[in-house]
Amino acid sequence: MPTSSHYDVVVIGCGMAGLAAANRAAELGLSVAMLEKAPEEHRGGHTRYSESFRVPSTDADIEQYGYEFVTKADYSADDFYDDIMSQTNDRADPEIARTLVDNAGETVEWLTELGVDWDMDPLNVGYTVARTFFEGEELVSTLVETAEKNGTDVYYKTEARELIRNDDGRVVGVKAITDDGFVELESDAVILGAGGYESSPEKRTRYYGSDYDAMTVRGSRYNTGEAIDAALETGANATGQWGGAHMALIDAESPPVEGGANRVDGYQYGVLLNREGDRFFDEGEDARAHTYAKLGRIIFEQPGHEAYIVIDEPLKEHQRATGPGGWVKGDSLEEVLAEVGCDNPETGAETIREFNESTDPGEFDPDSLDGNDTDGITPEKSNWALPIDEPPFYGYRVTGGITFAFGGVETNNCAEVIDTRGQHIPGLYAAGNSVGGLFFDNYPGGTGLSNAAVFGKIAAEEAADEIAPTKTSPTNQ
User: Fold this and answer.
1) Strand, coil or helix: what is 126?
2) Residues with pLDDT less than 70, the chain
3) What was the pLDDT predicted at 127?
4) Nearest 5°: CA angle at 358, between 353 and 362?
5) What angle, 0 to 180 degrees and rounded to 10, lies between the N-to-C axes of helices 16-27 and 447-467?
């Protein structure tokens, strides 16, 4: 049960958005309560299962902390902005996107000062922009401990179910459910950072289709959207692509929920076949970071919700798989395809032979779009079109897994929640995957954590600026 009934700020959620908001609010001298729906051993939302931040390296001076970018050290905020707009087909809110990229570098510096430990080595070949990498549980633990050290009270197994507004329309608290029943926390501001609705089978079916109750959830089972519902019920405007989501290519043997990344990197260099033995996607359309988050949905809508990566021996060194499944190996394409589960292995083998005939590669460069394309087949392969003809051959069974949904509440670039009249709801802020308007159709890899951290920090700063002149509650001890 909460030890105090009044706080300057109540933060809903213990993922990256909530952790950034709680830490910044505490730094600014505000009393903070952070409500986490999950038990302590499962805290952290999807951040617990995440791996990296996309960073405008020209704006992030992390060398002062002993770190150095390995990939694309000249990646600028403008480059980041262009990637967001390109991958979302120019549908992203330009002000939100601009604010994100302009603040991402200094936010990563700030997280480093809070004690976050980065690994700068790319997870595999094929990364084309600057990243910082991390271990999810460790990052969550570090930021929770820092927030608590600065006075934040963290309440686990405490789910926000209702926002309280006074007669003036201001959000002045939260009603939450705990093991001991309902509690009410009064506050001068509330920051929503509770993730999206992607872990709810009901909402996946509602927004994506009848089969999506069966889709694998890569992250937390607790991101089921009730906090978003509470904001909408109090007047927040719903925005963004509610039928869109980050749905990644993952290992088909992944558990139904909380499996984490379960990555299969390097698919872009090989061939993807469906159960019928047909190609269905331009594997070399772009770098992995610009295709994997839309490819999961494409694969899930293939027969049996699965597909097969097929490579030969020279490509094996460029693959990385972290899921529970494994590579199938054989001396013939038919053997591999039969063992991996293809219904028509002979058709699949013929598809690959036709693919091989369409290739005429020059120099292969796994780290850039090398221009090695196919000629005369559909779908084409735009880059890395190498013949799959040197045994042994390998196959890997993959499916689509949902990471986070693209719909949420509307905010402005100050993280203020906007209502259905287009007005800011006083006292209410939001950040991270509870917010819509940034991602549409696709997703530039590594942007979600950067977005959550930037706007969680901004939300706390805006709340402090709003409530500090009239703050009347004592700092919670």
Assistant:
1) coil
2) 1-4, 469-477
3) 82
4) 115
5) 30
Q: Using CA atoms of 99, 136, 227, 469 in order, give the dihedral in degrees to the nearest 10.
A: -50
pLDDT value at residue 149: 98
**3-class DSSP state of 200:** coil
Indicate if the alpha-carbon torsion angle 29, 31, 35, 41 is positive or negative.
positive
Taking the C-alpha atoms of residue 440 and residue 240, their distance in angstroms, rounded to an integer, is 7
The pair of structure tokens assigned to 432 is 């991270």
| Residue 387 near residue 359 (C-beta atoms within 8 A) | yes
Q: Are 280 and 379 in contact (CB under 8 A)?
A: yes
Assess contact for 77 and 102: CB atoms under 8 A: yes
Extract the tokens encoding 20: 């950034």
d(CA 44, CA 315): 36
Q: Which residues contact 10 (CB under 8 A, 6 or more apart)?
A: 32, 33, 34, 35, 160, 173, 174, 185, 187, 189, 190, 191
- Which three-class secondary structure state does DSSP give residue 259? coil
Strand partners, 303: none
Q: Pseudo-torsion of CA 61, 66, 71, 76, nearest 10°?
A: 0
Q: How do residues 190-234 score in pLDDT, each as one tens digit?
A: 999 999 999 999 999 999 999 999 999 999 999 999 999 999 999
Sign, Cα dihedral of 323, 325, 331, 334: negative
Report d(CA 240, CA 405) in Å as an integer.
10
Q: Are 22 and 152 in contact (CB under 8 A)?
A: yes
Do residues 353 and 275 touch, judged by C-beta distance below 8 A? no
Q: What is the spatial distance between Cα 121 and Cα 131, in angstroms, rounded to a whole number?
A: 9
Burial of residue 232 (number of CB atoms within 10 Å: 0-12, 13-18, 19+): middle
Q: Under a CB-based contact definition with an 8 Å cutoff, are residues 23 and 146 in contact?
A: yes
* Alpha-carbon distances of 38 from 43, 225, 434, rounded to whole Å: 6, 13, 16
Strands 171-178 and 159-165: antiparallel
CA dist 413 and 34 (Å) reads 23
The pLDDT tens digits of the residues spanning 50-71 come to 999 999 999 999 999 999 999 8
Helices (H), 114-265: 136-149, 201-208, 226-233
Sequence-ordered alpha helix ranges (H) in 88-160: 94-113, 136-149
Largest Cα–Cα separation, the chain: 75
Would you state the structure tokens that stand for residue 221, as one six-digit string?
A: 């089972």
Structure-token pair, residue 430 = 């939001």
